[in-house]
Design goal:
GO cellular component, one term: exocyst
Number of strands: 2
Distance between the termini: 187 Å
Function: Component of the exocyst complex involved in the docking of exocytic vesicles with fusion sites on the plasma membrane.
Largest sheet: 2 strands, antiparallel
InterPro entries: EXOC6/Sec15, EXOC6/Sec15_C, EXOC6/Sec15_C_dom1, EXOC6_Sec15_N, EXOC6PINT-1/Sec15/Tip20_C_dom2
Family: Belongs to the SEC15 family.
Strand content: under 5%
Pfam families: EXOC6_Sec15_N, Sec15_C
Structural class: mainly alpha
Length: 807
């Protein structure tokens, strides 16, 4: 077993040595062979080596047999090439010989010169290869400058300066280019700044068009919101105004700094047909590329801060010009609209610049401009709106201000101060409404006939009842034709009050007010209408010189019905504002007070007019105070006066009982006082008993006729106290019952309780003067002397009575 193992190891070792011989370089085979000779199995290795050589020979023989035909072909081709190579050799030899012969004629100096020229040409080509890109870049720069592509020109200039010129800086033309680079930069700055100035000027001129477009968009959005609010199922989510602007293809055209268009404003011609379908975006009207190019150019040139300061300074100046309102702005709504359009256009541009540039303008700058604009705009509106006297213009102005505020609010500007100012304009609007309705009420009151409204059929009756809340079961039962108790101005005034309320409600729309605030505003304005405007109009009608008693009576009736209708006005306001009158702090209408005051004024005017009429009749009284015998009938003036009072009191039957009684009582008091004044006036210095008897006849006739014609108003009681006093006085003189008067004076049961001793003394003095001057010889007759003494005695007693009661 050990011998077999040694044999296997020897065989393996020999195999390794053979592989090493086959794979090892010949120069390094020595150590391998030495290992063979050092071993004891040299003979066996040689056998193995011989066997391996025989194997390799057999393989070589096989390979040669396989490639023999190719070898033969290769030898044949090689023989052919040898012939051609010989021919080529002969030709080269011949050419060399000829060249040598020709070269004998060329000198060495000429050859050197040609070599030098060849090197110069090669160097020139190399230098031109370096210079041509520089010249090409410079030519490209000039072309870009000529075509106003300033930003690409600036980039080309940078490449030229930093990449190309350093490679050929030692050439003189390059030095000229290097010296010209700052001038080119300055030229680019000046040209780009000129484009910016043109852009700013165009923006200034077209701000109103930009603002008009933005406000139209806001109006469209508001209309859309209203439609969505009315049809909530359709709404898939509302967008803000700014989102609508962004979604309406508002991307600015050619905003890249590489843009070659320099116009600041695109085509802004009106296209009404297109605008009916869609309103173009406000920014679609503007090409902002001049701003962007100029900003990039100045940024590249390291002068961005200078550019920002210049831009902001110029825009501030433009803002001040935009915010300066025209002097006649208040005359038409178009003046306000143009003013608002310019402001909106200005801030739409600034807002777009804010969001499309980095740092040219910032939020602080925009907020500062807006604060200035807001204060100046509010001041201008306060001033110019104060000139507006037409409520329709004020209402249109309010709607325009709301649209103006909504538009700018859509761009993120705070507008609370504008809505606060609208509350101030609301007060002015109320004043203009009051002035307008003052004229309306005057026309209604002036054109009214102050007669009950006649109704001839059911249609007219229902029409009037539909205009004015009136219910009267007795009137409804009456057959046609019939009359309403009030005149035409009652339903007209009532409807105008409702129109006024509607007008107030219109102003409160879109002001973001609560229902309670709207209700309070309407009620306060309506109270002013009732207590100031309508009240003044009624007072003016009542105080007119030519107003008649019939008209005054109708005014009292009309105001009574208007007073009753105030509760319906309360309900009307409640229905349109949805604020219950029981709500805390709800303002109440003062209509009841207004109509009561008007009615009281009319009543007083009735009393005054009636008294004036009585005075006019009494001015016709022509008593003969010296007559000795009275006539058998009443005086003519008194007959006419009684006829007038009868017709007047007949009209009073339509008045409330208390008013009629008060009017009659006032008339009787005034008549009684005036009649007594006839007796006591200083011009009547003397009177006779016959004159007193005639006067007494007139008084009794007056009382008798009036009591007989108006028994159902108990006129006897009304006339009793004012006339009875005069009758007692006249009875005292006619009956000459002084002893009874003097004896019972001061007693509750006195017959002449209402006779004033001072009045009696005045009449007695006038009769005494008459007795003295009536007959110069009366003192010689005993009866006359006794009568004179009696008068003197009574007069003395009356003076004593007066003095005793005054102490």
């Amino acid at each position: 077993m050990m011998a077999e193992l040694e044999s296997l190891e020897t065989a393996a070792e020999h195999e390794r040595i053979l592989r090493e011989i086959e794979s090892t370089d010949t120069a390094c085979i020595g150590p391998t062979l030495r290992s063979v000779y050092d071993g004891e199995e040299h003979a066996r290795f040689m056998e193995k080596l011989e066997a391996r050589i025989r194997n390799h020979d057999r393989e070589i023989e096989k390979m040669c047999n396989f490639h023999y035909q190719g070898f033969v072909d290769s030898i044949t081709e090689l023989l052919k090439v040898r012939g051609e190579a010989q021919k080529l050799k002969n030709q080269v030899t011949d050419t060399n010989r000829k060249l040598q012969n020709e070269g004998k004629e060329v000198t060495m100096e000429e050859l050197k010169q040609c070599r030098l020229q060849q090197r110069n040409i090669s160097a020139t080509v190399d230098k031109l290869t370096l210079c041509l890109p520089v010249l090409e870049m410079y030519s490209k720069l000039r072309e870009q400058m000529k075509s106003k592509r300033h930003y690409p020109a600036l980039k080309t200039l940078e490449h030229l300066e930093h990449t190309y010129l350093p490679q050929v800086s030692h050439y003189r033309f390059c030095k000229i280019m290097v010296d010209n680079i700052p001038k080119l930069r300055e030229e680019i700055k000046e040209v780009s700044m000129s484009d910016l100035k043109d852009f700013l000027e165009s923006i200034r001129k077209h701000s109103d068009k930009i603002g008009e477009t933005a406000m139209k968009q806001a109006q469209q959005q508001r209309n859309l919101d209203n439609i969505v609010s009315q049809h909530p199922r359709i709404s898939g989510g509302k967008k803000s105004k700014k989102e609508v602007c962004a979604s309406s293809d508002l991307e600015v055209k050619n905003t890249s700094p590489m843009s070659e268009q320099d116009s600041g404003i695109l085509d802004v011609e009106d296209e009404d047909e297109d605008e009916e379908v869609t309103v173009p975006g406000a920014q679609d009207l503007v090409d902002f590329s001049p701003v962007y190019r100029c900003l990039h150019i100045y940024s590249v040139l390291g002068a961005r801060e200078t550019f920002e300061n210049y831009y902001r300074k110029q825009r501030r100046k433009q803002a001040r010009l935009v915010l300066q309102p025209p002097s006649n702005m208040h005359e038409t709504l178009d003046g306000y609209r143009k003013y608002f359009n310019q402001i909106v256009g200005f801030f739409v541009v600034e807002d777009h610049i804010l969001h499309t540039t980095q740092g040219l303008v910032n939020r602080a700058y925009i907020d500062e401009l807006w604060e200035m604009a807001l204060s100046k705009t509010i001041a201008a509106l306060r001033t110019h709106s104060s000139y507006c006297s037409d409520p329709s213009l004020v209402l249109d102005l309010k709607n325009l201000i709301v649209l103006f505020a909504d538009t700018l609010q859509g761009y993120g500007f705070p507008v609370n101060q504008l809505f606060d100012m609208l509350l101030e304009i609301r007060d002015q609007y109320s004043e203009t409404l009051l002035k307008k309705w003052s004229g309306v009420f005057r026309n209604i009151l002036d054109s009214d006939n102050y007669s009950p409204i006649p109704v001839i059929n059911e249609e007219i009756y229902k029409k009037i009842v539909g205009q004015f809340p009136f219910q009267d079961a007795e009137l409804e039962k009456q057959p046609f034709p019939k009359k309403f108790p009030f005149s035409e101005f009652v339903p007209k005034v009532y409807n105008q009050i409702k129109e006024f309320i509607y007008a107030c409600l219109k102003f409160s729309e879109d002001l973001h007010l609560s229902s309670t605030e709207v209700d309070d505003m309407i009620r306060k304005s309506t109270n002013l209408l009732l207590t100031r405007t309508l009240s003044n109009c009624l007072q003016n009608v009542i105080k007119r010189k030519n107003v008649g008693l019939t008209e005054l009576v109708q005014i009292i009736i009309n105001t009574t019905h208007l007073e009753k209708s105030c509760k319906f006005l309360e309900e009307f306001i409640t229905n349109i504002t949805n604020v219950l009158p029981e709500t805390v702090h709800t303002t109440k209408l003062y209509g009841t007070t207004t109509f009561k005051d008007a009615r009281h004024a009319a009543e007083e005017e009735i009393y005054t007019n009636l008294n004036q009429k009585i005075d006019q009749f009494l001015q016709l009284a022509d008593y003969d105070w010296m007559t000795m015998e009275p006539s058998s009938k009443a005086s003519e003036y008194l007959v006419d006066l009684i006829g007038f009072l009868r017709s007047t009191f007949a009209v009073f039957t339509h008045l409330p009982g208390k008013v009629a009684q008060t009017a009659c009582m006032s008339a009787c008091k005034h008549l009684s006082t005036s009649l007594m004044q006839l007796l006591l006036e200083a011009e009547v210095r003397q009177l006779t008993l016959g004159a007193l008897q005639q006067f007494n006849l007139d008084v009794e006739e007056c009382e008798r006729k009036l009591q007989s014609h108006f028994p159902r108003f108990s006129y006897s009681l009304l006339f009793l106290f004012p006339l009875k006093r005069r009758i007692n006085l006249l009875d005292l003189f006619i009956q000459w019952d002084w002893s009874t008067y003097l004896a019972d004076y001061g007693q509750p049961t006195c017959k002449y309780l209402r006779v004033n001793p001072t009045t009696a003394l005045v009449l007695l003095e006038k009769m005494r003067d008459t007795s003295r001057k009536n007959n110069v010889f009366a003192q010689f007759r005993k009866n006359e002397r006794d009568k004179q003494k009696l008068i003197d005695t009574v007069a003395k007693q009356l003076r004593s009575l007066i003095n005793s009661h005054h102490l």
